[in-house]
Amino acid sequence: MNVIIRQEKLEDINEVYDVVQKAFEDAYYSDHDEHHLVKRLRNSASYVPELSLVAECRNRIVGHILFTEIKVGNHTLIALAPVAVLPEMQSKGIGKLLIMEGHKIAAQRGYKGSVVMGHDKYYPKFGYKKASSYGIKAPFDVSDDHFMAVELIEGGLTDVHGVVEYAKEFFEN
């Protein structure tokens, strides 16, 4: 299976919307708003076009990932939300490819770290660990096991402490 990871283009927007919606349609842990969240975040000051990536297989978009800027104290980091893969393409390593390429681009752009709220069995595969171990806290009530952070640059989170400030679009409907 040949999968290409590339930056999202303007003409991809509708297909990405469908991919994200289908990816979370039957997810029990979801509020089923992820496709709208992506749309809101694209219009946000926190949006980084280079960190909106798609996975393409046989000229069809099968996955999408979005990282947006967040603040923790005086530091600008990124938040991974969401990563979406079409249900029939899940468990084939596409999410892994999206995350790894996103981390690589983010590090090249100078981002020191990323946070994610997600599965405590999945994200540690990519170096994520409890954000609290870095002194990073969520601005909402969430299990310590599910709010995680990763250093994208070695030692990047050493002096980062505080509560994450997400783009306001995360909290709109």
UniProtKB/TrEMBL annotation:
Q: Provide the leader sequence positions.
A: none
Pfam families annotated for this entry? Acetyltransf_1
Q: Which InterPro entries match?
A: Acyl_CoA_acyltransferase, GNAT_dom
UniProt domain N-acetyltransferase: residue ranges: 3-149
Q: Which residues form a coiled coil?
A: none
- SUPFAM superfamilies reported for this sequence: Acyl-CoA N-acyltransferases (Nat)
**Top-level taxon in the UniProt lineage:** Bacteria
The entry's protein name is N-acetyltransferase
